[in-house]
């Protein structure tokens, strides 16, 4: 007999990027485990207040009338978290909340600009977010997080970790990888997928300095995929590597994987090494690529 689960994932379609991959992987696993999944996903290409409210209303109606005893809820975004948690509790449903990113904890660090500490200056936005998180933690059956840092800090915020569950990201398949040879007559092919200097100009500069030092010894080429040209090109230009870098627009995930397979080394910057692992690291690992990055070795990443 199939078990029914209501699967609420604002970011589920592949067009939403790697943020939707976690929910899709779980959905595939649940289907294999004989679950009948009723999916409530966001279908609009452009988010508006009205379309968000319509989507939320649809989710609430399904909580009220769909025959199920379990609800999976993926966050962020977070605008739908509180009403869904309250209605699930009223209806007596087991609610599994999956935080793909921290909410209040990211606000507390100004999204990685400050070192994490509960002593950081509190804003009204932080107070509201952590109040909603605490309410939802009391209402839910399990509160799932994806990094060790989130598990530790949310445990401290909630003052108990009995409902916390750590399920890290990963990759579903290994992909074929071209051998990394680093022969002197061939340029070493570096690739960065997604944001780079957007996370930290200082870290980006450190990495590009390493690339410039390497370029003095051997030919290199850097492919930047889906990042901001305006934010990143100036760093390569200042460090005289503008002729060795190519910028590409955002691409479908399967095309990105092919680019990684045909590259030698992945480039990576983590926004907050205490709370985040990033998503591109798992694509690099899936393609068996070494990674060049700059990070604090004492932190969770």
Distance linking N and C termini: 42 Å
Question: Per DSSP, what share of the residues sits in E-state strands of 2 or more residues?
Answer: 15-25%
- Summed up, the helix count is 10
Going across the major beta sheet, what is the strand order?
Answer: 2-1-3-4-5-6
Elements, N to C (H/E): EHEHEHEHHEHEEHEHEHEHE
Helical residues, percent:
25-40%
Written account of the structure:
There is one protein chain. The chain has 301 residues and is an alpha/beta fold. The chain is built from 10 helices and 11 strands.
Question: What is the topology?
Answer:
Layout: E1 3-9, H1 21-32, E2 35-41, H2 49-65, E3 70-75, H3 81-90, E4 94-99, H4 104-108, H5 124-139, E5 142-145, H6 148-158, E6 164-166, E7 188-193, H7 201-215, E8 220-225, H8 229-238, E9 245-248, H9 253-261, E10 265-268, H10 280-286, E11 291-293
Parallel strand pairs: 1-2, 1-3, 3-4, 4-5, 5-6, 7-8, 7-10, 8-9, 10-11
Q: Which features would summarize this protein structure in a list?
A:
301 residues; globular; six-stranded parallel beta sheet; 11 strands; single chain; five-stranded parallel beta sheet; alpha/beta
What's a quick, concise take on this entry?
With 301 residues, the protein is α/β, with parallel strands linked by helices. 37% of the residues lie in helices and 19% in strands.
């Amino acid at each position: 007999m199939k078990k029914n689960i209501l699967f609420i994932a604002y970011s589920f379609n592949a067009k939403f990027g790697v943020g939707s991959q976690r929910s899709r992987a779980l959905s595939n696993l649940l289907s294999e485990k004989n679950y009948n999944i009723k999916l409530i996903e966001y279908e609009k290409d452009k988010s508006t207040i009205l379309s968000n409210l319509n989507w939320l209303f649809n989710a609430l109606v399904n909580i009220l009338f769909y025959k199920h005893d379990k609800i999976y809820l993926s966050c962020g975004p977070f605008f739908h978290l509180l009403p869904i948690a309250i209605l699930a509790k009223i209806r007596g449903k087991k609610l599994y909340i999956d935080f793909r990113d921290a909410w209040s904890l990211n606000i507390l660090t100004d999204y990685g600009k400050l070192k994490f500490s509960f002593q950081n200056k509190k804003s009204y936005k932080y107070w509201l977010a952590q109040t909603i998180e605490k309410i939802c933690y009391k209402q839910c059956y399990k509160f799932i997080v994806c990094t060790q840092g989130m598990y530790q800090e949310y445990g401290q915020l909630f003052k108990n970790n009995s409902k916390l569950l750590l399920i890290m990201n990963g990759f579903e398949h290994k992909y074929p990888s071209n051998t990394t040879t680093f022969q002197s007559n061939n340029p070493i092919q570096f690739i960065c997928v997604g944001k780079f200097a957007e996370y930290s100009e200082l870290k980006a500069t450190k990495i590009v300095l390493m690339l410039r030092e390497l370029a003095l010894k051997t030919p290199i080429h850097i492919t930047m995929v889906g990042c901001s040209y305006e934010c990143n090109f100036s760093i390569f230009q200042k460090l005289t590597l503008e002729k060795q870098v190519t910028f590409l627009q955002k691409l479908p995930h399967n095309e990105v994987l092919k680019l990684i397979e045909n590259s030698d080394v992945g480039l990576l910057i983590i926004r907050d090494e205490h709370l985040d692992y990033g998503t591109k690291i798992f694509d690099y690992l899936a393609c068996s690529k070494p990674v060049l990055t700059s990070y604090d070795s004492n932190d969770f990443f």
